[in-house]
User: Fold MarR family winged helix-turn-helix transcriptional regulator from Anaeromassilibacillus senegalensis.
Amino acid sequence: MLDRELHVLLRKGFYYSNRAILQQILALGLFPGQPKILEFLLEKDGAMAKEIGEGCVIDKSTIANLLVRMERQNLVYRKGHPSDKRASHIYLTEQGRALAKQVKAICIDVDTKAFRGIPPDEQQQFLHTLRLLITNLEEESE
Assistant:
């Protein structure tokens, strides 16, 4: 049966989680891709575009376009790298930080609903196993 195959379950889990998150995030006026960048920068403000792309699993051209749009919306700003003129660090603006906190709260709420009825130790074991699966898949894709 398909419901016993990892790739099917991952796809279904992503679909329902993403759907629940997007329904709430669209009301904030954000575009697809922006919420995960905001959430990433909330943890690693001042990251470079390459780091953001890798952390959010977004390709180079898409991240560049998203960051330009986010700058225009006053969600992020760039500050030049001190030794590399071609590179810049990306920071949240006050408005970006406020939205990032809302995004984080929405995601935590959806995660909490997904884990409903599952004991904390099983939640941690699941997350540990999922991280191992992702590491295995990352190694295969290199």
The helical segments are 6-25, 34-43, 49-56, 60-72, 94-114, 120-141.
